[in-house]
Every structure is written in C-alpha cells, then in structure tokens.
Amino acid sequence: MTAPSFPTELKAALDARLQGLSRGELAARAALISRTYRDGGGSGAIRSEADALAYALARMPATYSTVTASLNALRAIRPDFAPQSLLDLGAGPGTAAWAAAEAFASLQIFTMIDTNVALRTLALDLARGNAQLNNLEYAKGDARAALAEAEPADLVTASYLIGELGERERQPLAEAMWDKTRDTLLVVEPGTPAGYARIIALREQLIVAGAHVAAPCPHDGRCPLSAPDWCHFSQRLPRSQAHKQVKGAELPFEDEKFSYVVLSRVPVAQHPARVLAQPVASKVEISAKLCTSNGLTTAKIPRRDKISYALARRWCWGDAVMKES
Ligand SMILES: C[S@@+](CC[C@H](N)C(=O)[O-])C[C@H]1O[C@@H](n2cnc3c(N)ncnc32)[C@H](O)[C@@H]1O
Description:
With 325 residues, the chain is of the alpha/beta class.
C-alpha cells in the first residue's frame, strides 16, 4: 500500500507544540508510554499535556497512515459512500477524525469520545488547524456509557481502542457501536495475532447481527486463514526529524503492521480479491497470495500472459484486485 502523507497542518500543529520542550524528555515519556502499552497497560500512562504530545508525536503518523489505508480500501469498494457524520470512539488525539476528514470531504459532523483528558485537550487544540474539524464535539467518558447518549453516525470508527478493553467489555461495546452505525463501521487494531483475533471476533459477532464486510475480506464467510497465519497489512511511512527524535530512532521510515475490518449495513456490490502478502516476482511469473470470495489461493501469473502480468506487477500487499481463484 502506498503510504498516505501525514497532513501538513497536523504536522505543523504538532511541531508548534514542541517549542521550548526538551526533546530528550519527550523521548523518555514516549518510551515509558510505549513500554506501558507493551506490558498491557494501555493509555493510562498518558496523564499530562507533555505525555499526550509525546504519544501523538510517536504514534499519530503510524495510526493516521493505517486508518487512511483502511478508509481508502472502503472508498475503493464503495466509491459512492459519502458520509456526513463521523463518530470516533477512543479518539485519543483525534487521529481517525483527521484521516476521515481527508478521505471524505462530505463529512460535516464530527463526534469523538474518550476517557483520557490529556489526549482530549490535545485533540481539541490540534483540530483548530483543520477547518473541517472546527465544530467537533468531544465527549469525555467511557465509550460504552457515552455511546448511550450519542447520536448515530454514518461512519463510526474505533482505531486501536478494543485492545485497551477487557475481554468481557468487547462484545457489548461492539454491539453498542453497531447500534450507532447508520452505514459503516471501521475497526483498526495492531497487526499482531492478538489484534487480528480481536478483529475476527468482532467481525463474526456483527455479521450475525446483519453486517456485511466491505473490506478487507471479499466475503462474509469465515476467515480462511488459520494459525500461525493471520490477516494483517503493512504501511511504510516516512519519519520526520521530530518523529525520529521522540522515538529515539535512526531509520528514516517505519513499517506499521495493522489489521482492520470495515462493516457496512448494505451488502457491497463488488468482491475483488485481497492481496494478503507482498507478491513475489520471478523471471517466469508473479506469485500472489490472495483471499478471494472462494477462499485462499496463490495466483501465478506467467510472464507470457503479458497483459495480466503487467497488471499484476503493480499489485501490492493490501490491494483489492480483480482476480478470482
Ligand atoms: C491507543 S489509543 C488510540 C487513539 C486513537 N484512536 C488513535 O488511533 O490514535 C486508545 C485510546 O482509547 C481510549 N480508551 C481506552 N479505553 C476507553 C474506554 N473504555 N472508553 C473510551 N475511550 C477509551 C484511550 O484513552 C486512548 O485515547
């Protein structure tokens, strides 16, 4: 997947908040937050304005890029979808709203919900740099409780939220999110086996409730992958100077793995195959692992089939492609 570029206004708004702050201290805060996440502690470590900024500098470019890639997958399958309202749960610094605003010029009403005061304050501050987000509502509170009061929205998003919930909280939250989804729900999680397992559980639960998968799966049936395999994608994104400093990283890019599902109330009209790994090109053929509406397959496109070969050369991991088994 081609990396979507991080919005210039968002980068500028984050950079402006760096004035007068020690990069070393921000890097130490980001490292502590990241360690807390790895140990299963969630975003409880984000308590102050500086913590929120450190988190946003370290994580927003990656989460923006995976949410954008997921929304682009939705747009490719449903080019006519033009949501007017967005409801973003576990909104944090507002990443999904920025990505959705960029993906859908039709969006006018933005509602966010989160428990974290520091991230909410930062989100509201950052949003001042985006005219589309000027009138957003940001409720402070637990997602499920706040959902009871929320208006339904055309597009509902939950990016990197459900992994922060206890196992028993996930099903009722999924049900409540779906209740507030007028048209489409997007859920994004880290591209780990555990993140994928959460996505698959939610997908199965909501298909039973009447949802149809718009992406990444070309079907509403059971996922054909079995352990140790899992469905995930990857976004390569460039790291800015501030991003490198706060992560204590040298490489000018990073690869962010993610799993996601887009569920719609309406069945989708087209079911292209999904490329599940970077295709391998040899002198004789291109070999691509595909999920199709008939199950998993490894497509072999011989070089002598010039037209198909030329098309397949452009396939990337995560793309929707017109090739059935
Ligand atoms: C990993 S952050 C992701 C933030 C944002 N969605 C993004 O993609 O950048 C998870 C967010 O979920 C929020 N959160 C966790 N549990 C929550 C709950 N029960 N209700 C509302 N928000 C919650 C946290 O405060 C945090 O902002």
